[in-house]
Amino acid sequence: MSAVGAPLPHDSALAHCTGAARFADDLPEPPGLLHAALVLSPVAHGTLGAVAAPPGVMMLTAADIPGANDISPSGKGDEPLFATGTIRHHGQPIAMVLAETRDAALRAAAAVRAEIAPLPPLLDLDEAIERRSFLMPPQTIARGDAAAAILAAPMTAAGEFRAGGQEHFYLESQIALAVPGEDGEIAITSSTQHPTEVQHIAGRVLGLDYNRIPVACRRMGGAFGGKESNASWVAAAAALGARITGRPVKLRLPRKADMAATGKRHPFLYRWRAGCDGTGRILALEATLAADGGHSLDLTPGVVFRSLTHALNCYDVPAVRLTGLALRTNSVSHTAFRGFGGPQGVLLMEDVIRGVARATGLSPEAVRERNFAGAPNDAATPYGQALEGDLIRRAWAECRADAGLEARRAEIAAFNAAHPFLRRGLGSFALAFGISFGIRHLNQAGALVHVYTDGSIRLNHGGTEMGQGLNVKVAQVVAESFGVPLDRVRITATSTAEVPNTAPTAASTGSDLNGWAAHNAALAVRGRMAEVAAALWGVPAEDIAFAEGRVLVARPGDNRAMSFADLAHKCWIERVSLSATGFYRTPDIHWDPAAMKGEPFFYFSYGASFAEVVVDTLTGEHRVLRADLVQDCGRSLNPAIDRGQIEGAFVQGQGWLTCEELFWDEQGRQRTLGPSTYKIPGSRDAPPDFRVRLLAAAPARQATIFRSKAVGEPPLMLATAVWNALIDATGVARLDLPATPERVLLALRAKGS
Ligand code: MTE
Ligand code: HPA
Ligand code: MOS
Asked: Which ligand number lies closest to the CA of residue 442?
């Protein structure tokens, strides 16, 4: 059986279930280990005075940093490791204490006293907009004269709504272990999506060359974007402790500290007006998408960029003006979270579609179909990149058929007529999600492949494993490249010492980038091996084939063959290298930031969904009864893994849109710092009738690895159908997110029912 395309289990499935999989905190602790704990600000804004530790406590502050007190991913210096002068958010790290045990460290941290003269915090997005508290200049994507086209349109609609943030709630909180070695070297084990940035930021904070800071990560216990930039400062803090004490230091954030001190999904505020005609065709749209970036830039420019490039989603609007604002507030700095601004971006058109449906009396489904990008509408986005209109329509049509739209509408109407308090509703959604990093230089990857003389293979690549199944996919690619069974390929920990200068594993590009890099490495070794076999058998190297663990002459009537292992051994005898690096950079992508035009994505991943809910109008509670999803995965590398990603992402999206509510009090203190106050969805929130399908016969048209497509983030957005279903069930005009029972009740009251 061919390795690529097989529904193989996650390489650590059994180890995850039995507890044998080792996460950073499971590694044997090195002798002399010190445990670290952070001292976090109890106020959101203020002036920092003296910081005092009880006698005998070893405390590090900004004054102890030998390099730069700068953990900003941009290197712009707008985010310190430890606060100095001004406190900018509740939960901001002020100092770190070190102790022999973790409990002692936590107790000592709690006993540290920081003098802070409080200042009024800026918390509210509207107020931040009014005060023009921007983290960066507004970004605008525009085509045509939207304002004039709205004035000229036969009908208009307008809206305003909000979407909340989201806590990553990875099960393994942020952790790093730093071990000092010879000559000032500090080896870091980090639960990170971005080992190279851990290396860079630790280097910056310590004033050390990168070559002295090897960083490794075998796996994360979940990340979801929360370990793209935030893992770096946690690791830098541990490295600082190791540098100063000369002893190994482990920093593992308790859940409460993790939730207080690390960034979340950006909350957004939306305002829009649109013009349409009586057929539901949207002619023009003006919208502002305002993101709460928190106190520093972090990755906010990229998040706003993605929200803008996804604000029209898979729809065409001829005249548009989309403005993205990044607001600075006294909140923790918001960061990457599955979808990276895409989920926030695609919400906009949902509100527009509902507004146009109300104005015209059409169904939201009819308005969708009327406005899909691609013939007869324009296929290009306002920034100039073409969408594949046929794939949008195929995913949609297949999902609509799966969902049985017309029959279900009739059933739901009958149910609602028979129930005084319960209301069922059906909602839909369609998606085009761009794949590639918005930052061009991040679209590169490296890999290292060794073949040993017994024919076993060791694979290392720049991607990190966070549960998404990247390692098994890349191993499948390598097994396929060598024509060997998957169990010949050994998956190893990500390490900056083996594959340097990597991008984060993010933007769903892990298997695209690292799959290609590993394929290129494997092809380099295979080419040399083929030449050895060709010389042995006196045939051209092109006639050597690798399949089913064997190497053979692929010519009719020629039966010469040997095992892959025999050839590997032969290569060694012939003094031929069995090791190679592989490299890949995504072709064709480009962006002009001045014009806000270009083709920033290598391709788009498409999808569609329907969800049915039942709402209790007395309590505002709901359940998702059924979901039908169609997700484009190209020619899937591994349909079992992809299905898991689709189901998990959908439920995580449900959480963001319905039950996960972050709460800051009027003084800017985060009050949702644990599972008792912050509700993530549980297994019983997943739709009991959950129909997931990969779009069939849809190999990527672009030269992706084996024509597969990314899957990590896109299906999170398919949960948007739940929002539409809740609005359909309740008949309310506006339902801010997350649509908690309280919000549903308030919306019902506003509607006067
Ligand atoms: N799946 C699991 N189990 N755990 C995770 O942390 N992160 C998601 C997604 N799926 C995540 C996950 C996010 S935010 C991204 S960008 C992708 O995985 C990254 O991995 P990939 O590029 O290999 O798909
Ligand atoms: N997605 C996720 N992380 C990123 C991106 C992106 O598009 N750009 C930079 N970091
Ligand atoms: Mo994912 S938000 O790109 O780490």
From this structure: 2
